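User: Please predict the structure of the protein below. I'd like the answer in structure-token form so I can feed it into my own downstream comparison script.

Assistant: Understood. Taking the following sequence of 151 residues as input:
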Amino acid sequence: MIKILFICHGNICRSPMAEFVMKDLVQRANRQSQFYIASAATSTEEIGNPVHRGTREKLKSVGISTAGKTAVQMKRSDYAKYDYLIGMDSWNIRNMLMISGGDPEGKVHKLLEFAGSSQDVADPWYTGDFESTYRDVLAGCQGLLKQLMPE
């Protein structure tokens, strides 16, 4: 089983968007049994809060539910638990490395690496642009799935 943890600052916008987009892509490929997918925050400020309304609405518009998801924080033990720890931006990566104590096994990645870019996924908490964030998240998740499940 391939275990993936998507991570952003608060776990209410980008990382849950990536979690549920990836779950949807995996389900459409009929590969659910081969994956465990979750998301977490590097900070504590949103712990226990539901997915941001903008993320919920954008995903609902493409037929994806985020029901039941509340923000959780990344733990040091997640490094051993997951095969991939995927951050949304450079700041997240820095904080993820601090939480995990480093990346000796090369598990930490930035999402858009899988779409052939070194760019960050913009935080819609600040931009208000959930559409652009969704496009970036979708491209990253599609690239990740293609790498993990080549034709």
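That's the full token string. The domain at 2-148 is CATH 3.40.50.2300 (Rossmann fold).
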